[in-house]
Amino acid sequence: MAKKNMLQRELKRKKLVLKYSEKRKSILDELKKVNSLEEIFDLNEKLQKLPRNSSRIRVRNRCWKTGRPRGYSRYFGLCRNALRELAHDCFLPGVIKASW
Predict the structure, then answer these.
(1) Which of 16, 71, 79, 96 is 20 to 30 A from 30, alpha carbon to alpha carbon?
(2) pLDDT for 24-74, tens place per residue?
(3) Which run of H or E residues covers position 12?
(4) What would the DSSP string read from start to end of 21-60?
(5) What are 13-26's pLDDT values in tens digits?
(6) Which of 20, 4, 28, 5 is nearest to 56 (CA)?
(7) pLDDT at res. 97
């Protein structure tokens, strides 16, 4: 199980991403349409004034069961350990153990 503070940090980041997504998107759209260098600098300054954690790239995928950040499978939202455990217990429909 991941540390509680790490999980809370991720929740905080997700909330900030939702809160600032419209503002960030509008600034980035304006930035694509700008021609002058001074306007580009102004818009970049506006972007930099937004909180760092409001950027989507800073959100880390974590297992919903254990909170583990590594070995993450997007299809199930689980880390490899939890995926294996649930597959062996037949809780994941359509998942079978490979044999060749």
Answers:
(1) 16
(2) 999 999 999 999 999 999 999 999 999 999 999 999 999 999 999 999 999
(3) helix 4-33
(4) HHHHHHHHHHHHH--SHHHHHHHHHHHHHS-GGGSGGGPP
(5) 999 999 999 999 99
(6) 20
(7) 83
CA distance 11 to 90: 30
**In this structure, what DSSP letter does residue 93 have?**
T
Q: Transcribe 64-92 into DSSP letters.
A: TTT---SSEETTTTEEHHHHHHHHHTT-S
Rounded CA separation 51/30 (Å): 19
Distances (CA, A) of 55 to 38, 61, 71, 72, 87: 24, 14, 23, 21, 34
Residue spans of the domains in the chain: they are 1-60, 63-100
Can you give the pTM of this predicted structure? 0.80
